[in-house]
Amino acid sequence: GQNIDQPTEMTATEGAIVQINCTYQTSGFNGLFWYQQHAGEAPTFLSYNVLDGLEEKGRFSSFLSRSKGYSYLLLKELQMKDSASYLCAALDSNYQLIWGAGTKLIIKP
Amino acid sequence: ETGVTQTPRHLVMGMTNKKSLKCEQHLGHNAMYWYKQSAKKPLELMFVYNFKEQTENNSVPSRFSPECPNSSHLFLHLHTLQPEDSALYLCASSQDVAGSYEQYFGPGTRLTVT
């Protein structure tokens, strides 16, 4: 079956760095997305990786290893507004998104 | 402003009621989606429309009935729901269904079935 695993909850300190991991098993693979969802709001797109390596976008970076079925989202210089859920989703061979349950990130002062 | 709007934002309905959720996208996209989001669970894809045609129906009970009159509007008609249907219902759109296009989400309708 198809599956996405990511931690349920993580806690980090303002100003620090946090890495949110995601492992996936899909029928074929056409890329991996990360979305951010603040409580009570819509998910919003953060990143898309289809090739191995690190993609940097400001304070956020996303990494992909296709051979390991593994991705991570790296958040630097954490701010209180980064408190949110982070959703990992893999695109399978039919271009259908397989979603993880999300990682709730709590930032403490 | 995400370009995708949903109404109502909150809905409380009894099991015998009939109601409809509405979604509108102002992005010129061709694909629209309905998702169900329950606490601590992955997003569940319910229906997919591409150019107004339904391309996906993920074994959704018939008490949920989608309607897509044009590429900009999507409805979800609800009738005789169960308490376990209480969830956040999200609408999304993307440029197309095939390809690595990001999806743009609406704010959702928080549905409570009593």
Quick description:
The complex is a heterodimer of chains A (109) and B (114). Chain A has 109 residues and is an all-beta fold.
How many strands, what sense, and barrel or not for the largest sheet of chain B?
7 strands, mixed
User: What does the average pLDDT of chain B come to?
Assistant: 92
**Strand content of the residues of chain A, in percent?**
over 45%
Order of secondary-structure elements of chain A: EEEEEEEEEEE
- Shape descriptor of chain B reads globular
Bin the helical content of chain A: under 10%
How many DSSP-defined strands of chain A? Answer: 11
**Form type of chain A:** globular
- Looking at how many chains there are and whether they match, the oligomeric state comes to heterodimer
Give the topology:
The complex is a heterodimer of chains A (109) and B (114).
Chain A: E1 3-5, E2 9-13, E3 18-25, E4 32-37, E5 44-49, E6 53-57, E7 60-65, E8 70-75, E9 84-91, E10 97-99, E11 103-108
Parallel strand pairs in A: 2-11
Antiparallel strand pairs in A: 1-3, 3-8, 4-5, 4-9, 6-7, 7-8, 9-10, 9-11
Chain B: E1 4-7, E2 10-13, E3 18-25, E4 31-37, E5 44-50, E6 53-57, E7 64-70, E8 73-79, E9 87-94, E10 104-105, E11 109-113
Parallel strand pairs in B: 2-11
Antiparallel strand pairs in B: 1-3, 3-8, 4-5, 4-9, 5-6, 7-8, 9-10, 9-11
Essential attributes:
heterodimer; A: 109 residues; six-stranded mixed sheet; five-stranded antiparallel sheet; 57% strand; globular; B: 114 residues; mainly beta
